[in-house]
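Work Package 4 report. The design task specified in the project plan requires that, given a folded chain encoded as structure tokens, an amino acid be chosen for each position. We show below one input record used in the internal validation round.
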């Protein structure tokens, strides 16, 4: 049997469910990655550049083993039709399924084409610990609140790490589509640099080992402090499938018990929860899940949005976070919540603007988690933060970056400030500004909004949306 293993978000040869079956059940195996221009985000996208770098690392790892990752480039139907002509004996394709978003729609199209070509498709669950359909309420509906979801999640038996016996003698060797290979090479050359992002399965295992051995125990407390850098950083590897979620869970679960271990496992459950939410709300990238807040009248000031993107809002922690994102392609999770709250509540800018910007900039972008996080912070999603809870960027800074070290790292204009006013530099006196070598309004901006007033306006906008929704329901009870 000649089979194809189609890699997508599972860029590894270990603990890979579809690859395990493909190797066990085929006589010859063609390893494939399909590059679809329909998915391109633009040549300035850190997200895209990081993902393609992960693809290239997988190719290099396979080359070391004497195997080849073949590249198809172009329209999905055209590419797989060409492949069938090149491999007339091709009879089966193996994939790890997507349960939501673009991947699900792509798989529907591919499934129809494979049927036309006489190809038998084998799909497996691989990307999450529990699938989107696996955890339901006792009445058979899907959970909308995390805590009861997590209570059931904890009860379920977890999948084991999959043993993959990689046999290179089965793998089809030399590249077949030279023009496609050349197009992919040119695409890689055009991508922006992704900084110091260390990608690939080997790096993922180094991170996992270091995190479990040195950071897991203290994770519950330390994870909230950006400068401590005490989070796992595994998200960029999980999103491309450079390491399996089963491998991560197994390694963490075998560690000695601690509050940090419990908290981290809860974060893995959040990842499953957001996947389930996206699968049951397929339009959530564009539509707020909470119907009460679909009528919010956003201000959508484009100048303020640009200042937020550039880290020029006059709120140091927000600015440091946004500059960290732009410089590194990553942002600390607490700061993701803070910057999202600031955009949607302080600036009253549509959460969809922020979500799409993060999609371009994050090297660990995962649609379900990113959309879920933005809808949570903006109070528009499932189990979202109450609309009247608005993060205060100054008090958050004072609590989690007490001496301003994180601010100084990414906002060097403020690095000489040695008192508590680094959290609110607009309160520096003229004498202090001269002493610290920073003129507010010239070297560093003053606050572009009043947090106190913005909070009031945001709460009013959300309450107005609730009233509009209630009135619409009353007018049309259907």
């Amino acid at each position: 049997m000649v089979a194809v293993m189609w890699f997508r978000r599972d860029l590894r040869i270990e603990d890979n469910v579809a690859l395990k079956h493909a190797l066990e059940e085929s006589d010859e195996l063609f390893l494939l990655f399909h590059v679809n221009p329909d998915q391109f985000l633009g040549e300035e996208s850190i997200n895209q550049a990081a993902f393609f770098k992960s693809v290239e690392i997988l190719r290099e790892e396979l080359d070391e083993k004497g195997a080849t990752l073949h590249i198809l480039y172009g329209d999905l139907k055209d590419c797989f039709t060409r492949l069938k002509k090149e491999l007339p004996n091709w009879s089966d394709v193996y994939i790890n399924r997507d349960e939501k978003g673009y991947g699900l729609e792509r798989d529907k199209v591919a499934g129809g084409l494979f049927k036309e070509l006489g190809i038998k498709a084998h799909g497996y669950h691989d990307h999450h610990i529990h699938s989107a359909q696996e955890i339901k309420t006792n009445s058979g509906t899907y959970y909308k609140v995390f805590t009861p979801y997590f209570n059931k999640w904890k009860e379920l038996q977890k999948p084991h790490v999959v043993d993959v016996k990689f046999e290179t003698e089965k793998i089809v060797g030399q590249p077949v589509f030279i023009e496609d290979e050349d197009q992919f090479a040119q695409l890689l050359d055009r991508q922006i640099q992704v900084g110091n992002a260390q990608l690939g399965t080997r790096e993922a295992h180094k991170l996992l080992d270091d995190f479990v051995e040195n950071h897991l125990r203290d994770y519950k407390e330390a994870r909230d402090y950006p400068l401590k850098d005490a989070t796992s950083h595994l998200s960029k590897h999980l999103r491309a499938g450079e390491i399996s979620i089963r491998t991560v869970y197994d390694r963490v679960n075998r560690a000695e018990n601690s509050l940090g271990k419990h908290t981290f496992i809860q974060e893995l459950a959040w990842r499953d929860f957001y996947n389930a939410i996206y699968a049951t709300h397929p339009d959530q990238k564009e539509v707020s899940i909470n119907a009460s807040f679909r009528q919010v009248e956003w201000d959508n000031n484009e100048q303020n949005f640009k200042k937020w993107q550039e880290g020029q809002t006059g709120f140091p922690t927000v600015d440091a976070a946004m500059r960290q994102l732009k410089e590194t392609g990553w942002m600390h999770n607490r700061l993701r919540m803070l910057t999202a709250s600031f955009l949607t509540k302080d600036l009253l800018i549509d959460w969809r603007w922020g979500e799409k910007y993060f999609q371009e900039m994050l090297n660990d972008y995962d649609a379900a988690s990113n959309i879920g996080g933005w809808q949570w912070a903006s109070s528009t999603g499932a189990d979202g933060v109450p609309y009247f809870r608005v993060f205060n960027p100054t008090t958050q800074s004072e609590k989690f970056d007490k001496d301003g070290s994180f601010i100084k790292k990414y906002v060097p204009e403020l690095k000489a400030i040695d008192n508590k006013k680094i959290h609110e530099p607009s309160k520096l006196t003229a004498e202090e500004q001269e002493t610290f070598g920073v003129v507010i309004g010239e070297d560093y901006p003053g606050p572009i909004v009043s947090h106190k007033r913005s909070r009031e306006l945001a709460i009013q906008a959300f309450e107005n949306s609730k009233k509009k929704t209630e009135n619409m329901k009353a007018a049309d009870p259907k």
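The chain has a mean pLDDT of 95. Validation will be extended to a larger panel in the next phase.
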